[in-house]
Amino acid sequence: MSLQQETQTSLSGSNPQPVPGFWRRLAAVIYDLILLIAVFFVATALLLPLNSGEAFTRQQFLYPLYLLAISFIFYGWFWTHGGQTLGLKAWKMRVLTLEHKPLNWTQAFIRFVTSLLSWGIFGLGFLWILFDKNQRGWHDHLSKTAVFFDAQKK
What we know:
two-stranded antiparallel ribbon
């Protein structure tokens, strides 16, 4: 399926606009994941002196919570400041509310938590994009947000 074939009518109904499909969104997710791993390296380097320079063990349950908080800050900041992570920007997409408004921090939190659910159940919530008439995943539905093509990039 080509990137042009993966577009569909927007949620607005009255003003049909193409929306990004599964493959384009997956490419942005992979791009962002690579960036997030780099952020994890920096975040871990900042924390290592507090652990005597030693690797973190399974008994240190706060470390995964720390990385989860870093992940939320990473995505939340991008989503609330323009609606674009670097992956979304590279693929000319934007996360907005259903009314095409920027997300606030509460909406970003709901989207982040429900994204974990979407991916946590074998990615079924993300694969839902392939079957949904508006090409929205579980996290899009639950957070009342959607991914749109970036109107500023034509």
